[in-house]
């Protein structure tokens, strides 16, 4: 063993003295190897929606280990992925009645893109291949998912490897320049999709992907529901599939089980990950509409085939864990998440008129703070003096873990902080998170 760590992990400066070692975790707390208890106000990366102690999982895991370790979904099935698919499709909106399992959020979105392409090909529209995304969005780190993503920080250095897919503006009311009521602004912003489809040629566009409520790049930004109604209309008119990326927003994060329920609009494909297993195992899925799956009907000899999959898709152990986790997202848990989100926003009230806080927004238990150098013009701080990382550090000194964003504003690194505690966080911890963040912002200002 050399003097440098063997683990290859080079995010944000790499593993080093500032990476704490977490020995154990419980409820909303991470416990370091030297006994320090840190409140996890970000649920890891907005993953641990049920906290770090989900009751009953030990039995689920040991029972499953005794049954079957692995099978390839290409040739076999098993009660665990079958049950999970039933649970998900029963609770998903509209006719999203089949689940395609993979392992990560990026893979779920990659699968959605290829499925959209295959669907159009089956229907004789072989030229429909491009995916329209939105600037600032994040859909994953793999090359296809990054191509649809508009997070310029994460695209930087890899542009030459990415698909040249188009992007439209994000649903970012704080920085919209459209005139009119919130509803009119939302419709105007959505119509950028129509303009882009026409410019590119509808015969080349397979799908549009969006996070219903934006994640880490512009945390908690979301439009008036007229936005997604207009998106749905445009997608239908131009035969473009609408993919809702709910990797971060799914499983109660923004209030309802799925964020699209906030807008009462049903996408053609809805991707889930993160909270699906609440962090206990890597598993994700693309939930697919009847209209799409009908093109790939295995009982029809003339039906299409979707030759795509990953080795660990629907792994029985992962599926058993996710099935147990999904059953925990009761109405009560979702309600608690909404209440704690409201309470957390209230604790941030002292920052509402603070000179460096441009916006405080939230959806359920996802809160976004946006820092600006000038509240009047909304000019962000220069990237090298970005406030979010300093607020993050000050909050950590008070034993509260938050999530600094990595988005960008007009090409300038975004200056956001996301708070996304477990839905089950205690009221006492919410107060502690609020106190730490308010103190941190006041200290760095
Ligand atoms: N989509 C969204 C909205 C995300 O927030 C993320 C990850 O943060 C992803 C996709 C990618 O998921 P994964 O990191 O599991 O590949």
From TrEMBL:
Signal peptide: none annotated. CDD domains: OAT_like (cd00610). Keywords: Aminotransferase, Pyridoxal phosphate, Transferase. GO terms for cellular component: cytosol. PANTHER family: AMINOTRANSFERASE, AMINOTRANSFERASE CLASS-III. This is Aminotransferase class-III. Belongs to the class-III pyridoxal-phosphate-dependent aminotransferase family. It holds the Pfam family Aminotran_3.
């Amino acid at each position: 063993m050399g003097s440098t760590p063997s683990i290859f992990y080079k995010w944000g400066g790499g593993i080093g003295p500032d990476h704490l070692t977490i020995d154990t975790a419980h409820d909303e707390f991470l416990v370091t190897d030297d006994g320090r208890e840190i409140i996890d106000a970000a649920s890891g990366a907005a993953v641990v929606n049920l906290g770090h102690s989900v009751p009953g999982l030990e039995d689920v895991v040991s029972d499953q280990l005794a049954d079957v370790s692995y099978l390839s979904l290409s040739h076999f099935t098993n009660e665990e992925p079958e049950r999970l698919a039933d649970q998900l499709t029963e609770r998903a909106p509209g006719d999203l009645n089949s689940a395609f399992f993979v392992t990560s959020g990026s893979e779920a979105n990659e699968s959605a893109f290829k499925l959209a392409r295959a669907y159009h090909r089956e229907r004789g529209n072989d030229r429909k291949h491009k995916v329209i995304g939105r600037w600032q969005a994040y859909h994953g780190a793999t090359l296809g998912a990054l191509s649809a993503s508009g997070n310029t920080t994460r695209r930087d250095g890899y542009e030459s490897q990415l698909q040249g897919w188009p992007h439209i503006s994000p649903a970012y009311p704080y920085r919209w320049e459209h005139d009119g009521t919130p509803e009119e602004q939302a419709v105007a912003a959505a119509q950028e999709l129509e303009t882009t489809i026409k410019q590119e040629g509808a015969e080349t566009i397979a799908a549009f992907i969006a996070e219903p409520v934006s994640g880490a790049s512009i945390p908690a930004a979301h439009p008036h529901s007229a936005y997604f109604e207009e998106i749905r209309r445009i997608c239908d008119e131009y035969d473009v599939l609408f993919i809702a990326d709910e990797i971060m927003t799914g499983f109660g994060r923004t209030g309802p089980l799925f964020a699209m329920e906030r807008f009462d609009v049903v996408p053609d494909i809805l991707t889930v990950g993160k909270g699906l297993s609440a962090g206990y195992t890597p598993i994700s899925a693309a939930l697919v509409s009847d209209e799409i799956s009908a093109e790939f009907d295995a009982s029809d000899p003339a039906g299409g085939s979707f030759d795509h999959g990953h080795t660990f898709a629907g792994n029985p152990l992962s599926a058993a864990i996710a099935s147990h986790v999904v059953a925990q997202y009761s109405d009560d848990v979702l309600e608690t998440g909404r209440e704690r989100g409201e309470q957390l926003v209230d604790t941030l009230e002292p920052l509402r008129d603070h000179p460096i806080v441009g916006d405080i927004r939230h959806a359920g238990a996802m809160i976004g703070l946006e820092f600006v150098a000038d509240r009047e013009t909304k000019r962000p701080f220069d990237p090298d003096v970005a406030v979010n990382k300093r607020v993050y550090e000050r909050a950590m000194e008070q034993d509260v873990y938050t999530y600094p964003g990595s988005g960008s504003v007009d090409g300038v690194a975004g200056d956001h902080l996301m708070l996304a505690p477990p839905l089950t966080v205690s009221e006492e911890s919410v107060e502690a998170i609020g106190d730490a963040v308010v103190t941190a912002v006041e200290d760095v200002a």
